[in-house]
Amino acid sequence: MEYVYAALLLHKLKQGITEDNITNVIKATGSSPDAVRIKALVAALGDVNIEEALKAAPMTVATAAAAAAPSTAGSSPTSETATKEATAEEKTEKKEEEALEGLSSLFG
Description:
Elements: H1 2-12, H2 19-28, H3 35-45, H4 50-68, H5 77-107
Helix pairs in contact: 1-2, 4-5
C-alpha cells in the first residue's frame, strides 16, 4: 500500500513516477523498499492516466453512498421507487467497478 501512496504523492507533487523517486519516498518513511514491487508498480502505472483514475474513483464512492441512503427509508410508494433507482445505480456502480478493476489490481 505504501508504494501506491508514494506514487500518488509523487503525482500530486507533479514529480515523475520513477523507480528512483518511489524508492526515495519509501526510504524517507523509514521502510526498506522492495525493488521488484517498485518496478512492477512503475510498469503498471506507465499506461494509466492517474488523473482520470482519481476522477473516476470518487464517483464510485458517491454512487455507493446514494444507493445506500434509500435502503434506510420506510416502506412507502416513494421508497419503492427509490429502491428501484438504487438497484439501477448499483448496476451502474458494478459496471464502473469492473472498469476500474484492472487499476485496483495494481494497488492490491
